[in-house]
Amino acid sequence: MDMKKIRILLADDHNIMRRGLRLLLEKQAGFEMVSEASDGREAVERAEATNPDVAVLDIAMPNMSGIEAAQRITALLPHAGIIILSMHSDEGYVLRVLKAGAKGYLLKDSAENDLIEAIKAVRQGKAFFSPEISKLLAEDYVREVKKRGAEDSYELLTSREREILHLLAEGKSNKDIATSLNLSLYTVETHRRNLQDKLNLHSLAELILYAVRKGVVS
Amino acid sequence: MWIPAVAETRGSDRLLLSTRFALTAGFGGLLVIVALGGMYGIRVLQKIRRDENQIRRQFLAKNHALNDLRSQLYLSGTYVRDYLLEPETGRAESYRASLGEVHQQMETALESFGRQLEPDQAEHYTELSTELSDYWRILGPIFKWDAGQRRRQGYAFLRDEVFPRRAGVLAIAGRIESLNELQLNAGNHRVDYLLSEFQSLLAMILVATLLLGSGMAAFSAWKILGLEARAHAQYQEVVGARKQLAELSARLVQAQENERRKVSRELHDEVGQALSAVLVELRNWSTDSGTQADAQSRGHVETVRELVENAVRVVRNMALLLRPSMLDDLGLVPALRWQAREASKQTSMDVSVAAELVSDDLPDEYKTCIYRVVQEALHNCSRHARATRVDIRVQQEPGRLSLFIQDDGQGFDAKQTKGLGLLGMEERVNRLAGKYQIHSVPGSGTIVTIELPFSSNGKEPATRGHEKDPNPVSG
Question: Which of B148-157, B259-268, B466-475 has the least mean pLDDT?
Fold first, then answer.
C-alpha cells in the first residue's frame, strides 16, 4: 500500500449519518477527508474542485440522486473510486449502481463495518459489496439455478476464462490482465468475449454482478 | 338535491299527460271525421243509387205500359178490320169478343199507367184517355151492324173513322213517351246534382282531414323532436356522469398510489434513515467506549442495536409493500424482477420475468398499472391457483405495451368468478384505454393478457399527464 493518504469525499443529506461516518473515517490512519456535500449536485461540484480518490455517495439525495452523481463524477474523474451507500438490498439497484460507474455498494445500516475495507478495495479498482448483498445475490443465484434445474453456466467456463472473469470483476482492465497472465491483449479480448457469450452478459456491470453472485469476488 | 328532482319529475309527468291528451284528442278527432265522412258518403251513394234505380224503373214501367197500350191499340185495329171485313157471322162474333177483351185489357193498362204518372203528365193522360174513349165510342155502332152493312160501309169506316182516331191516340202516346224521356233526363240531372254535391262535400271532408292531419303530424313531430332532444340530453347526462365516475375512480386510484408513494418514501427516507443513523451512532459508541464499558452495558447496547435493526427491517418491508421504490427509481422491469424474486422467495412458485425492449422511463400510470396487475396476478396465483410456475412477459412495441401472465395453477371460471382484485385490474387497464383479457379453464391454468395503447415518443395517448416525481431516488 502506498504511503499517500487516500483522499475522500463524503456526500449524504442526513447530517447525523454524515457526522457518524466522518468520525469513523477521521479516526482511520491513511485516510483524509477532503470534502463533504449534502446533495448530489454539490457532491459533483466538490468532486470536480477537490479531485478525491474515493467518493462515498448516499444513493438518495435531493437535487441529484447518488446514482446520477456517480455517473457524472465517473465522467469527470475516471480514476476516482465511487462507493454508493444504499438502503436497498435489491439486485436491481446494485446493477444500476454498477452501470453508473460505481464499484462499491454498501448497505447503510452496516456501512461503518465495511466502509474502510470498501474504500481500500475501491481505491485499487476492485469491486466491493456489503457481505449481506453478496450473500443475497449468491442465494438468489443458487435458488434460480435450483429452480430451473438448469446447468450452472459457470461450469461451462474454461479455467482460463474463470481466471479472466475473476480479474475483470476485481477491476482489472484487459491490458492489466494481459500483462499479469502473460497473454496478448487480443487473446484476452477473445476470452472475454467468449465468456460473456457463454454467460449471456452484456456489460462489465453485469459481469461484476455475476461474479458477486457466484461468490468469485466478495 | 332531491326536491327539485321530484318537482321536475312531477312537471314532466304533467307535461306528458297533457301531451297524451292532445295527441288522443287530435288523432281521435281525425278518426271521427274520417269515419263520419265515410259513413255519410256511403249513405249518399246508396241514396243516389236508389234514386237512379227508381227513376229507371219508373221510366221503364211507364214505357212498358205505353207500349202495351200501343200494341193493344194496333191489335184492336186489326180486330176491328177483321170484324168489319168478315162475311161469316160466327167468325165476326169471335172477333168482336176478342175486341172486347182487348178493350178490357186496354182499360186496365190505362188505369195502371195512370197510377204511375206524375202530376205534370196528368193533362196528357186525360187527353189520352179522352181520345181512347172517343175511339171506343166511335166503334160502338158497328157492333149493331149486320153482315150487309159491314160489307158496304166497313172499309169506308175503317179508313175514315178508325185509322184517323187510332193515329190520334198514337200521337198522344208518342207525346207521353217523349215527356217520359224528358222526365228520365230530369231524374238523371237530379242524380248528377246529388253527385256533384256529394263531391264537394267529399272535397271539404278531405280538406278538413288534411288540415287536421297535417296539424296533428306537425304537433306530433314537434313533440317527438322535443322528446328526442330531451332523451339525447339525458343520454349525454348519463354519459357525462359515467365519465365523471370513471374519472373519479381513476383519480381515486391515482390518489391512493400517490399516497402510498408518499408514505413509502417517508418511511424509507425519514424513519429508515433516522434508524440507520441511530445504528451508526450506536456502533460508534460501542467502539469508542471499547473495553472501558462493562459487560452489562455492552449487552444493553447490543440489545438496542438488535431492536433498531429489526425496526429498520420492518420499516423497509412496509415501505416496499406499499410501493416498491424500484418502480420510481429504476423503472418497471427492475421492479417486476424484484417482485418476481420476492414471490419466488416467499412462495413455492417459480416466477420468471421476460422483458423485451421496455424503456426505463415509462410514464407513471403505465408502470403502476402493469406493476399492480402483476402484483394482483401473483397474489391470485399463490393464494387461489396454487401455481408452481408463473411466466411474466412485458413487451413494448410501436404503439402498444403488452403484458402476459401465464400460470400453471388450477384456473377458474373467468365468467363466474370476478373478485375485487380482478375488477381492480380491469379498472386500471380501462383507465389507459387498454384491452384486458383473462383466459382461464378450470384445471389448466390462467393467462392474463393486457394490451395498452402507448406511443413511446413522449406523447402518451388517451390519458392525463402523469405527475412528475419530485424525488426520483430513495435511499
Answer: B466-475
Q: How many residues does chain B have?
A: 475
Task: Kindly state whether B335 is in contact with chain A, defined as any CB-CB distance less than 8 angstroms.
Answer: yes
Between the CA of residue B234 and those of B223, B229, B296, what are the distances in Å?
16, 9, 79
Interface pTM (ipTM) of the complex? 0.75
- For residue A17, which residues of chain B lie inside 8 Å, CB to CB? 273, 276-277, 280
DSSP A155-201: GGS-HHHHHHHHHHHTT--HHHHHHHHT--HHHHHHHHHHHHHHHT-
End-to-end CA distance of chain A: 20
Supply A65's cell numbers: 440522486
Please judge whether B273 and A67 are an interchain contact, meaning their C-beta atoms are less than 8 angstroms apart: no
Please tell me the total count of domains within chain A.
2
Which residues does residue A32 pair with via DSSP β-bridges, in sequence order?
A7
- Global confidence as pTM: 0.59
Q: How many CB pairs under 8 A join A and B?
A: 88
Residue B119 confidence (pLDDT) above 80: no
Looking at the domain assignment, is residue A107 inside a domain? yes
Closest-CA residue to B324 (of B333, B337, B313, B335):
B335
Burial of A79 (0-12, 13-18, 19+ CB in 10 A): exposed
Tell me, what CATH number does A36's domain have?
3.40.50.2300
Half-sphere exposure of B230 (CA within 13 A, CB side): 10
Q: Is the dihedral of CA B298, B302, B307, B308 positive or negative?
A: positive
Given a contact cutoff of 8 angstroms between Cβ atoms, the answer to whether A70 and A82 are in contact is yes
Alpha-carbon span A91 to B339, nearest angstrom: 11
pLDDT in tens, B378-409: 888 888 778 888 999 999 888 889 999 998 88
Give the tens place of pLDDT for each residue, B289-323: 665 667 777 788 888 888 998 998 899 888 888 88
| Residue A197 belongs to domain spanning | 151-214
Dist. CA B278–CA B270, nearest whole Å:
12
Q: Do A60 and B274 touch (CB under 8 A)?
A: no
Specify whether the CB–CB gap between B344 and B389 falls below 8 A. no
C-alpha to C-alpha distance for A141 and A93, rounded to whole angstroms: 16
- Taking the C-alpha atoms of residue B339 and residue B333, their distance in angstroms, rounded to an integer, is 10
Nearest CB partner across the interface for B316, out of A58, A66, A87? A87
* Predicted local confidence at residue B233, as pLDDT: 93
Residues A158, A119: one domain?
Answer: no
Does A155 lie in the same domain as A125? no
DSSP for B47-105, please give it.
Answer: HHHHHHHHHHHHHHHHHHHHHHHHHHHHHHHHHHHHHHH--SHHHHHHHHHHHHHHHHH
